[in-house]
Design a protein that fits this description.
With about 375 residues, this protein is α/β, with parallel strands linked by helices. The protein has a domain of about 190 residues: 3-Layer(aba) Sandwich (Isopropylmalate Dehydrogenase), CATH 3.40.718. The protein contains 12 helices and 12 strands. A 10-stranded mixed sheet has the order 2-1-3-12-11-4-5-10-8-9, sandwiched between helices. The chain has a two-stranded antiparallel sheet with strand order 6-7. Strand 11 and strand 12 form a beta hairpin. The radius of gyration is 20 Å and the shape is globular. The N terminus is likely disordered. The chain binds adenosine-5'-triphosphate (ATP). The site of adenosine-5'-triphosphate has 16 residues, from loops. Adenosine-5'-triphosphate binds next to loops.
Length: about 375
């Protein structure tokens, strides 16, 4: 991750006061990987104050509270960043707590830019033949507050042969414009891992089938791209993009897309990086408290077994530190994760012999000495 540049785009950045970070491990493997990320943050020496919150399924099952009153306002007021694990628990069938906490944070705190760097740290992690780290170095910017995730729609005549279900895809001019503009700004301000400038913003949609929303995205993209003549604007339908991503990931630089396509293509992209256990993300609203979470979910099938890869969470912590202005600490953490991969000090999903705790401990110890 290009930590130095990461810092430049992020406004908070003053180092005079201690940065305050809210830590919400959540459910499942979130409770295993976040403690490792916290250990590494502490080992990095970054001058931050960490406060734990127990929001998640256990708390919900105990007192039916998903988010305490004033919870989101408190996060925005009292913290500079939020580090989140994952939400989702088989005991909560409705998944109401996950919706209220995670989507609540994204929607109510208006964290409109979901930033997902896709970087291959080591060739051994990529399932594609002959692909080297320099070939997979792009970022997906996913609109994070609209689309089909607004839960607009309904079911009519449920349970009858005449049942009708509608799911609305909400696209506002404001929402589309700000994520597209964010993408051009991101492209302008960030370099690739090798230091070369980013040059291309590609908008991914399905405007040939979803014509109304597609038309809005197309018009806004054309308009905003006109403000950045030094950058190249490209377009690709989402189906074609999936094919190209596995055939030749080299061609991608900055991809901007809607909420659902972003969700889908970043799982595919995570596959290029070594799987869900390796992928980091940030939920950003420039100038406001932003939230950082690994791309993976709570993974109930492996939860509680010390199997989960903590590197996605650790790389997420590095991304958060870079955002807060701790560029060198972030760079040290990333370099150490790379070393862990090279030395096979990893969990089984990426070919190592270690458990979650042991892999986290290895990175923390190295980071504290580097
Ligand atoms: P969600 O619906 O929130 O995406 P999920 O449980 O359906 O959650 P994930 O949690 O993203 O999906 O995980 C899907 C699978 O990927 C897991 O069952 C597990 O096999 C693998 N996986 C995810 N995260 C990790 C990780 N950190 N380490 C190892 N394997 C992981």
């Amino acid at each position: 991750m290009d930590s130095k540049k990461e810092t430049r785009t992020q406004e908070p950045g003053t180092r005079q006061t201690k940065h305050r970070i809210a830590v919400i491990p959540g459910d499942g493997i979130g409770q295993e990987v976040i403690p490792q990320a916290v250990k590494v943050i502490r080992a990095s020496g970054a001058d931050v104050e960490l406060t734990d919150f127990d929001w998640g399924a256990d708390r919900y099952l105990l007192d039916q509270i998903t988010v305490p009153p004033d919870g989101f306002a408190m996060l925005g007021r009292d913290f500079d960043a939020i580090l989140v694990g994952a939400f989702g628990d088989l005991r909560v069938k409705t998944n109401i707590h996950a919706k209220e906490i995670l989507l609540g944070m994204r929607f109510k705190m208006d964290l409109y830019a979901n930033v997902r760097p896709v970087r291959l740290l080591d060739a051994s992690l990529c399932p594609l033949k002959g692909v080297e780290p320099k070939d997979v170095d792009f970022v997906v910017l996913r609109e994070n507050t609209e689309g089909v995730y607004t839960d607009a729609g309904g079911v009519f005549k449920q349970g009858t042969p005449d049942e009708i279900a509608t799911q609305e895809d909400i696209n506002t001019r404001k929402g589309v414009e700000r994520i597209i503009r964010y993408a051009f700004q991101y492209c302008e301000r960030h370099t690739k891992l090798d230091g070369s400038p980013r040059k291309t913003v590609l908008m991914c949609d399905k405007s040939n089938a979803m014509t109304h929303a597609g038309s809005l995205w197309q018009r806004v993209f054309k308009e905003v791209s006109g403000e950045y003549p030094q950058l190249t604007a490209q377009h690709m339908y989402v189906d074609a993009l999936c094919m190209h991503m596995v055939r030749d990931p080299r061609q991608f630089d900055v991809i901007v897309t809607n909420n659902m396509f972003g969700d889908i293509i970043t799982d595919l992209a995570a596959g290029l990086q070594g799987g869900l256990g390796m992928a980091a993300s940030g939920n950003i609203h420039p100038g406001k408290t932003s939230m950082f979470e690994p791309v993976h979910g709570s993974a109930p099938s492996i939860a509680g077994k010390n199997l989960a890869n903590p590197f996605g969470a650790i790389l997420t912590a590095a991304m958060m530190l870079a955002h807060l202005g701790f560029s060198s600490e972030a760079a040290r953490i990333e370099a150490t994760v790379l070393e862990a991969i090279r030395q096979k000090k990893t969990t089984q999903d990426i070919g190592g012999p270690l458990g979650t705790r042991e892999a986290g401990e290895w990175v923390a110890t190295k980071v504290s000495r580097s």
